[in-house]
Amino acid sequence: MKRLLPLLFLMTFAVNAAIAQKVIKGIVKGEEGSPVPGTTISLKGSTNHAIADNKGEFSLRTYAPFPITITVSSIGFATREVEVTEQNHTNLEVILKIDNRQINEVSVTARRRNEKIQNVPIAISVIRGGVVEDAGAFNVNRVKELIPSVQLYSSNPRNTTLNIRGLGSTFGLTNDGIDPGVGFYLDGVYYARPAATTFDFVDVEQIEVLRGPQGTLFGKNTTAGALNITTRKPTFTPGATAEVSYGNYGYIQAKASVTGKIVNKLAGKISFSGTQRDGTLYNVLTQRHVNGLNNIGGRAQLLYTASERVNITLVGDASRQRPEGYAQVIAGVVKTQRPAYRQFDNIIADLHYELPSRNPFDRLIDHNTPWRSNNDQGGLSVNVDAKIGGGTLTATSAWRYWNWDPSNDRDFTALSVLSLSQATSKHQQWSQEVRYAGNFSSKLSGVIGAFVIGQDLKTDPVHIEESGSDQWRFSQSTTSELWKTPGLFDGFGIRTTSQLKTYSAAVFGQLDWAITEKLHVLPGLRYNYDEKKLDFNRKTYGGLQTEDPALLALKNLVYTDQVFAANTDNTNLSGQLTVAFKANKNINTYATFSTNYKPVGLNLGGLPTSGGKPMLELAQIKPEYVQHFEVGIKTTPSASSTLNLAVYNTDIKDFQTQVQTAELGVNRGYLANAEKVQVRGAELDGSIRFNDHFSLFGAASYTDGKYKSFINAPVPLEETGAPSAFKDISGSRLPGISKWAGSLGGEASIGGKFLGQGGRFFLALDGYYRTEFSSSPSPSLYLNIDGYALVNGRLGFRAAKGVSIFVWGRNLFNKNYFEQLLVAAGNAGQYAAVLGDPRTYGITIRYNFSPSN
C-alpha cells in the first residue's frame, strides 16, 4: 500500500512531462456582464475540464494542437461551443445566454469535479438547498420521501439505520461494532456515527445521494452508497440570511447565517440553527407530553485564498440535542409459544396492571422511567485545495466527537421491569484524506487518493441495565415459588465497561479513459486495511444478597458476568469497472461491475449464552463481501426534462446482520452472519419543466431483497419458546424494504411583487408512497408495517433578496402510520412502535440581505 500511491503519482507526472502542454485562459460572463462562477469548461472529445472561479475566470491545460473546441456550460444557461486558436487562447471571453428551460439541470461533485448530473455514469439523485429551505422542518427523514431508494429508521439518534436499496446498516437497534454501509459526508468529512443524521441541516447547498457501492471515489469504503452534503461557502461579498418558523405542537425554529470579507484574502461565515417543539405522545403517569424537539447548533467557516491556485477552508461546528424524547408506544401483543403463565397479558394481569390504551395511535404512554436522549456532536476540519498541473490536489483533515447520554424505558410500561437502561458513550474520530483529481492526458482523467481514519468508542463510564421489583414476573421461566422471593431482582443489573478502537487506511483511484468522444472506460481500485481492538467487561450487581445456590441460579438466568477481548486486522482489494457510452448529447448509458467489502464486526451488546456460558464464537463476525452489477440509461428528452433508469443486482456473502434474542443480557441484540443475501431492483426518476411557471418531478423504485441462505437465524417473536431458538429463514425477505416506493411532486409559480420587491408566488406539493414491509430481522407474521402514503405542501412568496414568506404542511391528511416496530426486551410478547409524526404545519419568514437590497 505504501508503495502504490507514490508510483501512481510518478506515472501521472511522467505522462504530463512527456507531452508539451498549452494553457487556455479566459473568463465566463452572463449577458448582463457579471461573472458566472462554477461554469464547467471542457475540451470537446476529451476528459479535460476546468471550473471557473468566483470571478468567472478559468485556466485549462491541454495537449491538443490548435485550433480546438471547448464546451462551456453552467446551470440555467445555454451551453456554448467555442473555437480556440493560437491567437485567442490566453484571453477568451465567453458570454452565456440565460435559458430557463435548463434551470432544472443539476451540477454534482460525486466524481470530485463539477459536472452535470446527466453526464455522470452513476445512479445519483440530488436535493437542492432551496428544497431543504422551503420544505419547513426539514431533516434526513425527508430524504427518503423525495428519493424512494433511501430508507431511514430511527428509534433514537444512536439507533439510527440509514440504508440505500435496503442495504447499509443493521435493521433495528444499533450495534457499534460494525461499520455503516452508507457513507455520510459533510463538506468532504466522513461522519462515522449514524447519530449525525438526526441533527438539523444548516446552510445546505445540496444533498447528493449516490446509490450502489462507493469505494474508488470517496475516502471511506461504503458497500451501499453515500450521502454527500455540501454547505454554502463563505464569500467576500457581504451577505446574511435570517429566518424564523412557527408551527403547531409549539414548533419554533430559527436560523441565521452571516458571511463577508474579514481582511484581504480572508472571508468568514457563521451559521446558527435552533429548534423547539412539544411532544406528540402524552404520558398519563407524569401528565407530560414527550417526544419533543430541542436542538441547537452552530457552524463557523474561514476561507483563506492564499493565491489564485490555493484555497484553505477551516470549519468548526457544535450541535446538541436535549429532547425528552424517542419514547415508543406499545403497538400490539403476540401470543408466543411459551407456557400460558409466560404470556404478556397473563403477566400483567398477575401484577394488576393494564395498558393506558391498546390503540397505539391514541399516542398514550405511562412509562415510569424518564426518556432522555442527550446527543452532542462537533468537530474541526481543514480543507486545502491546490491547483497543480491539470487538476486539483485536495487535503482534508478532520477531528470529530460524539457524546451520548440516554435513558430509556425498555419495557414500555409503568411497571418496574427494567428501571434503568442507559448506554452512555463517548466517541472520537480523526481522519485524513488526500486526493488528486484532474487531467492526466488529453484522453485520461481521474482521481487518485489515500484515506486514514482512527476511532475511539468507549462507555462513559459504564453502560447500565437494571431490573425493578416487577422483573421477576417477566423473567419467570419455571413454576418455582422461589421467583417470588422478595427483593430477589429489585435493583439487580449489569454494568458494562467497553472500549473499541479502530484504525482504517486505504488507497483508491478511478480513471476516466476517453477511447472515443462517445465511449469511456472507467476502471477503479481500492486497497483497504482495517484494524479493530475490543475490550468488553460486564459485571452483575445488586438484587438480593444471598448465598442460596437456587436463588443465585435464578439470578443467573437473567444476567451473568461476561468478559472477552477481540483483536483483528484484515486487508482487502476491491474495485469497479464502468463502461459508459454516450450515444448522443441526450442519451448516456453505462454498465458497472464492482466488488466491495465491509470489515470484521465485533459484538458490543453482549453475547448470548449456551449452558450458562457466553458464546465467545460470536464475539467476532466475518467480513461482508459484495458483488454488484448495474446498468443504467440517462436521457434528456428535451432541454427542460430528464428521464433515467437503473437496474441492478447485488449479491452479498456473509451479510452482517443484527438479530434479537430473548435474553435480557444481550442488550440491543447481537451480530451474526447470514450466509448469502441478494438485493435486486430497478429505479426510474425524471423531471420536467413545462415552462417558467410549472415543473414536475417523480421517482419510483422496485426493490427485492432476500436471504438466499440464513440457516441459523433466531426465531421471530411469535415462535419464542419453540423447541429450537433458531430456524432456517433462507428465501425470506430482508427487513425494512418495501417492494415498491415512489415520490411525485411539482411546483407552480408566477412572477410578482410582495412588499414592493420582486419574486415569485408559488404552490408546491409532493407525495411519497411505499408498500408494506417487514420490521423484524427474522420474518414475523405480526411485525409487518402496512403501506402508507404521505402528502406535503408549501404555499407562499419566494424572493432571491429581501423577504420570503410561506406556509407549509407535512402529512397533510394526518395519516396514522408506523415508522418501525420493535420487540420489547425479554420477548414476553409485547412489541412497540416508532410512530410517524401526525399532521404538522407552520409558517416561515426569511430575509436575505445583500448590499444591493
From TrEMBL:
Q: State the membrane topology.
A: Multi-pass membrane protein
Is Iron tagged as a keyword?
A: yes
Principal localization reads membrane
Q: Name one GO cellular component term.
A: cell outer membrane
Is tRNA-binding set as a keyword in this record?
no
Alphabetically list the UniProt keywords: Cell outer membrane, Ion transport, Iron, Iron transport, Membrane, Receptor, Signal, TonB box, Transmembrane, Transmembrane beta strand, Transport
Where does the UniProt annotation place the signal sequence? Answer: 1-17
InterPro entries in the record = Beta-barrel_TonB, Beta-barrel_TonB_sf, CarboxyPept-like_regulatory, Plug_dom, TonB-dep_rcpt-like
Domain (TonB-dependent receptor-like beta-barrel): give its ranges. 353-812
Q: Name one GO biological process term.
A: iron ion transport
Annotated ranges, domain TonB-dependent receptor plug: 117-226
Per the record, the similarity remark reads: Belongs to the TonB-dependent receptor family.
Q: Which protein is depicted?
A: TonB-dependent receptor
What is the organism of origin for this protein?
Chitinophaga silvatica
